[in-house]
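Margin note: ligand = beta-D-galactopyranose.
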Amino acid sequence: MTKKTISGLALSVALISGAQAADVEVMHWWTSGGEAKALGELKQSLAKQGVGWKDTPVAGGGGSNAMTVLRARVLSGQSPTAVQMLGFDIQDWGDQGVVANLNQVAKQEGWDKVVPSALQQFSKYQGKWISVPVNVHSTNWVWGNKAVLDKIGVGVPKNWNDLILAMKKAKKAGYVALAHGGQAWQDATVFDGVVLATGGVDFYRKALIELDPTALSSDTMKRVFDRMAQLRGFVDKNYPGRDWNLASAMVIKGKAAFQMMGDWAKGEFLSAGKQPGKDFVCFRTPGSQGAITFNADQFTMFKVDKAHQQAQQQMAKAVLSLEFQIIFNKVKGSVPARTDISGERFDDCGKKAIADLKEAVNKNSLVGSLAHGHAAPAAIKSAFYDVITAHFNGEFSSEEAVKALVSSVKNAS
Ligand code: GAL
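Resulting structure:
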């Protein structure tokens, strides 16, 4: 009997027994192969508890489309039960008085003790838990096809020059050196790692979190844009508009050598049956080692009627339960949103991600991803998106991009 049948059976048993079997409506943007597989683990975990699942997917990496649909739903008084959400967006919703209070389940489950403080700052609004963290992703990663790297005779690049050299060799050998999707959120995801690799974590904090005009207009920021222009020279002509998971597929199939993307890309490699070390390599954006640009997916819980509150609480509890955290994050490519889970059941990339997170927390080199809403609020994030994408598409020189960034960020603040 398949897992699905069992969970379906559990749900029907619950219905027959008259147990409280409300459902939860979940809005999210996990529509790729790897993402859907990970989400399936949550659906099954809830079905076993007799909680039904109304799926509301809103395609579009990085979640901007989902946030647009959410605003319409809340305005029409039809909030979903739970919504996948990132960083500062959670705080914006906390302001609106439409989210649920999760303090009771947080207390009984001991979330304050096990959830990293870097996540709690986004999960809580005015001291109240309003969102349950699902994972910790990070964006300063590069994914390489092992066979391609072996064929062109390069090892894992340790510094920026090695990376550029490897890309040149790949291009010369007829591969797409850098698989990329020309969408603002993807350009910005690459930018996260390039800022960290070029200026270091203190510069990243000053420029992208404190929005210090001197840092934003510095020679270091110009060098960041110069490096983004270098990368632009390694993408293929069909990059505009490509979805991120199709870029991952280019590396998976050996058409491309590298992709610079958050570790949700690992979920695509795993769901394609690929193994780290054998089929692909994962390494930090060269020059950014020892630091992490993170983004944690969370389910923000919205106010629902009494009939659905128990199901909502059950979902919140399931999401941060120990076993689910391991099963889900192994498939998703992220690491657990709890500090009490070791990496022993994770693959080598997962083990590295868990170790890197611990190191970054201890060294205070954990910074929020700008691209995924953990460095600055949405309006500022969009200002960065516009300038980064315009530059990547050749509309700005590096000097012009630096000037545009300073003025756009100032106008959006
Ligand atoms: C991020 C999210 C990931 C993944 C990615 C691509 O914002 O944290 O879980 O969904 O977008 O869509």
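The CA atoms of residues 40 and 371 lie 26 Å apart.
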